[in-house]
Amino acid sequence: MAKIVFTRPKSMKDVVTHYCPGCHHGIIHRLVGEALDELELAPKTIGVAPVGCSVFIYDYIDTDFIQASHGRAPAVATGVKRALPDKFVFTYQGDGDLAAIGTAEIIHAAARGENITVIFVNNAIYGMTGGQSAPTTLVGQSSTTTPKGRTSQNDGFPIQVCEMLNTLQGPSMISRVAVHTPAQVIRAKKAIRRAFQCQVEGRGFSFVEVLSACPTNWGMTPLDAGKWLENEMIPYYPVKDFRIPEGVQ
Amino acid sequence: MTQKVLMKGNEAIAEAAIRAGCRFFFGYPITPQNELLEYMARNLPKVDGVFLQSESEIGAINMVMGAACTGARVMTSSSGPGISLKQEGISYIAGSELPAVIVNIMRTGPGLGGIAPTQSDYYQAAKGGGHGDYRLMVLAPSSVQEMADLMFLAFDKADEYRNPVMVLGDGVLGQMMEPVILPEPKEGKGVEKPWATTGKGNNPKSKLITSLYIKPEEAEKFCEHLAAKYLTMAERDTRWESYRTEDAEIIVVAYGTAARLCMAAVDMARDKGIRAGLIRPITLFPFPSAPIYAAAEKGARFLTVELSTGQMVDDVRLAVSGKSTVSFYGRSGGMVPDPRDILSQIEQIESEKNGSTAATEGGAA
Amino acid sequence: MEHRMIFAGFGGQGVMLMGQLVAYAGMLEGKHVAWIPSYGPEMRGGTANCAVTVSDKPIASPIVYEPTAAIVLNQPSLEKFAPQLTPGGQLLINSSLISGISSRADINQVCLKANDLANQLGNLKVANMFLLGALIGLTEFIHIESVIEALKKVLPPHRHNLLEVNRQALQKGLEYVTSSSLGA
């Protein structure tokens, strides 16, 4: 009899995602689901969904969810957590949502050390609206709104969110990870689980940035997208642990 | 008997909210409503509630949304520019069918305007305010006592309809002190909120609070559901006060502070033998069209008085439906009309009636 | 009877408190009251002021247009509010800080060197209470005892040692206008 060695996390629904081929959201969703399972958090979880490609996260992760307006997920999560301090509250946000329109909300939730977890997916482009420039679009990277490539003269410089939040006292944990290779996936899983654990232990704001590919809007094959992420994104957005609290499991 | 206390309107709102079971307040300072925020900061922690000063009004209204999702009684307050910033969140709260109370102590606009009292946010409050096909229930107190009383109603109706309720005051009401008998604190848990996202626990199905309806068929169904809800509100919860209207030939329509001034003007007119009365809308949405239409059918003429250049007057005209005349008198920018000036307007309408009665009656005959 | 009063002076002279005490006292006597501070455009012109209405009937307008009485503690307040008084209205002038009186002949004007009288009691801060006592003596719209009761509610307990000096100031203000022959 065959032995089951790989299965869908219990906290994920048995549905096919709408994400494009080569998109990393599916992997990141799965890591979130695994971490929820392992820490047995799903029954007490309230997730906050962003505006962007991952707005439909609530169709895939089987916990209570709230759909927030663009960029405001950390504020909504704050309201939930203040009302229900014993429940588990996380946001899942893209780079337009978190690093452009929602900059104020993320910085102040982090500065307050709000006891929530934020999963920040950075693919250096706006996906859902069709490939416009993001605050994390690299200099030189082309998009539909920087057709000749982003220039620092006209468009300024991309925001390094982990580095920025790392100037604040509030966060308990800040890590940047990637999911374009199996080794990176294992590391990312560990970071997400650790971030959840930080909240469970009441350590305050925990933050994981996940570098992610968008082959469709980058105009690449999934394999080339992985290489581009490795060669172009990681040098500017180094994958590392910026802050890890002592003694966290 | 419960004792009367002398309170500022802003503080009466805050105390009444706490007594109505509000335990969460998220807000951002702006004049002329700061006493409300500060009262909450002092007193919510005493009842194990949470006061949090947010990074912006946008942050505040989204925190309100988050707490509302858990089923908690939650509110925010602001004024003019701050209320504008909250509109996106208010639209989401309405679109997600969440109960929440928003207080607007109006100041002048547009733009930064000034801190003096006006009623220039009527359109914004009564016609939706943010994007999309929705309405708020809007309550317009005209005394400190009513500010306290309507806070209870605001929270109850927000829960009942799962819809945001706005309490619309102005700088005069917020700053003035009057005796108030505070309602007794609300006991018990209040209405069940099975829709609240509190974690799925042992339930097989997780809950979702969203305003996203990507399919037009579903979106239309939802908009029609909201429209039906507003119709129910109109049928059951339209509120107004009539003052000396039984035999009135001239009816002044005014709300909030303006209604107080008009009440004085109506008394002066009566002293002069003019049959004047006042209809004071207490709910601005749903708007009390029925009593206005009924009076118009009986031949009353209307004068709308507002601390603006004319906003509610549109709703009065719609209610009158061409059955009678509607005049308007307003002061704006923080200038408050003298009741004697309102009296002059009433006298003007009275003289027009006397001047034109023959022609009108001749035409009718 | 509706008493519509203005209390006006510089910030720090206790005009807001004076108004609140009057409103509170009126409430304790079962009357309808409203207090409203200078606010918005009213704040221009170097005066802090508040308006108080004390009435046997529900109060329509909380905003006072034709005051029946005014207490003015500085020159700009005299200039601003004397013209607004209703004919036959009562004007009380703190002549320690104000030179002259209003040119109106159709109002009653009483001058009181409130600061000097307060200094005699050893507490400049009760100048406002002399004037309030005088207003009560002249118009009898509330009782001094109600004002003392209101003070007990408004002052924090650790300030209740000031009740006596306030009572004295109120009483002396009242006696000043009821015992002496007054002329404007």
TrEMBL record, chain A:
Keywords: Oxidoreductase
SUPFAM superfamilies for this protein: Thiamin diphosphate-binding fold (THDP-binding)
InterPro entries the UniProt entry points to: 2-oxoacid:Fd_oxidoreductase (IPR051457), THDP-binding (IPR029061), TPP_enzyme_TPP-bd (IPR011766)
Positions of the Thiamine pyrophosphate enzyme TPP-binding domain: 59-210
Protein's name in the database: 2-oxoglutarate oxidoreductase
Originating organism: Heliobacterium chlorum
UniProtKB/TrEMBL annotation, chain B:
All residue ranges annotated as the Pyruvate:ferredoxin oxidoreductase core domain in the record: 248-342
CDD domains: TPP_PYR_PFOR_IOR-alpha_like
Tagged with keyword Oxidoreductase: yes
Pfam families tied to this protein: PFOR_II, POR_N
Domain Pyruvate flavodoxin/ferredoxin oxidoreductase pyrimidine binding residues, every copy: 15-227
InterPro entries the record matches: 2-oxoacid_oxidoreductase, PFOR_II, Pyrv_Fd/Flavodoxin_OxRdtase_N, THDP-binding, Transketo_C/PFOR_II
Residue ranges of the TM segments: none
Coiled-coil intervals: none
Record's keyword annotation contains Ribonucleoprotein: no
Key words of the record: Oxidoreductase
Alphabetical list of PANTHER family matching this protein: SUBUNIT OF PYRUVATE:FLAVODOXIN OXIDOREDUCTASE, SUBUNIT OF PYRUVATE:FLAVODOXIN OXIDOREDUCTASE-RELATED
Name of protein: 3-methyl-2-oxobutanoate dehydrogenase subunit VorB
Organism: Heliobacterium chlorum
From TrEMBL, chain C:
Keyword terms, alphabetized: Oxidoreductase
Keyword Disulfide bond attached: no
Keyword Lipid biosynthesis recorded: no
Record InterPro entries: 2-oxoglutarate_synth_KorC, PorC_KorC, Pyrv/ketoisovalerate_OxRed_cat, Pyrv_flavodox_OxRed_cen
UniProt superkingdom: Bacteria
Domain Pyruvate/ketoisovalerate oxidoreductase catalytic: 11-175
Pfam family, one: POR
PANTHER family: 2-OXOGLUTARATE SYNTHASE SUBUNIT KORC (PTHR42730:SF1)
NCBIfam families: PorC_KorC
Name of the protein described by the UniProt record: 2-oxoacid:acceptor oxidoreductase family protein
